[in-house]
Design brief:
Elements (H helix, E strand, L loop, with lengths): L4 H24 L29 H6 L12 H20 L3 H24 L4 H17 L5 H26 L6 H14 L4 H23 L11 H15 L1
Helix pairs in contact: 1-3, 1-4, 3-4, 4-5, 4-9, 5-6, 5-7, 6-7, 7-9, 8-9
């Protein structure tokens, strides 16, 4: 709609910047570095990156994907994250039912992107992101005329409660942790955003995708099917939730 064009354009621009921020967060998470307090530096020459080299997408293209100071290659995942942030904003705009839903949907998908990257990078789901997912989930439920805040809370309780039970039962039976508390919090946020009825399908999509990827990865590495390698299941859950938000 013409009336929402400025808002849509703003969200697309923000998406690239948000993607850059989330990529930096995921990159620093395994090292325990702050994404806010610690300034951005080149990993090779340690030179602080200037503001002109921080423009999402554009700076990477102008620099040819290399550090201005030492010429070291800038990880392509940073560029892909910026593109992904903008692309998710476009998808949120495409499925939006109102200007508010457009904004909430974009933020929801950005948080999903951040959770996927953090779990893949460090097997961690930061509380700041799972907490924000819960808040955005309740906001999405509240603005939905067919759901409401109570339905969002029920979905959160169902999702978080179900995974807390699975986590406790698995630990009791196997004597070791199978699911982290981050996964429990993640499912609470997903339940709030999508509702309790969407959770079985989200879990099924995540489980099937994780299984296929694990089998293919194990086959490439020559591992046997019974391998107990750690899997960033939170990333699959978050990805499945984002997919279901768009098509479900």
């Amino acid at each position: 709609m013409p009336a929402t064009a400025p808002l849509a354009f703003f969200l697309i621009l923000c998406g690239a910047a948000v993607g850059s921020f989330l990529a930096a967060w995921a990159d620093r998470l395994p090292r325990g570095e702050s994404v806010v307090a610690d300034p951005s530096r080149c990993r090779d020459c340690e030179i602080r990156i200037s503001w002109r080299d921080k423009m999402p997408v554009l700076s990477w293209l102008l620099l040819g994907g290399k550090c201005r100071s030492c010429g070291a290659a800038i990880p392509k995942r940073l560029f892909y994250a910026e593109i992904s942030g903008a692309a998710l904003a476009i998808l949120a705009i495409w499925v939006a039912q109102s200007p508010l839903h457009m904004v909430l949907g974009a933020v929801f998908l950005w948080v999903i992107l951040g959770l996927v990257m953090c779990d893949l990078a460090a097997f961690r789901l930061p509380n700041a992101l799972t907490g924000l997912l819960f808040v955005i989930g309740l906001a999405l439920a509240s603005q939905d005329p067919f759901r409401g805040l109570i339905d969002g809370l029920i979905g959160a309780a169902f999702g978080g409660g179900a995974f807390l039970f699975i986590r406790t039962f698995y630990q009791w039976v196997r004597g070791r942790e199978g699911l982290g508390l981050g996964d429990v919090k993640l499912m609470g946020g997903i339940g709030a955003a999508l509702g309790a009825t969407a959770l079985p399908m989200v879990a099924l999509i995540a489980a099937m995708t994780a299984m296929i990827v694990a089998i293919l990865s194990g086959w490439r590495k020559g591992e046997r099917p019974g391998s107990t390698a750690e899997i960033p299941f939170g990333a699959y859950l978050a990805g499945a939730a984002g997919l279901w938000f768009l098509i479900g």
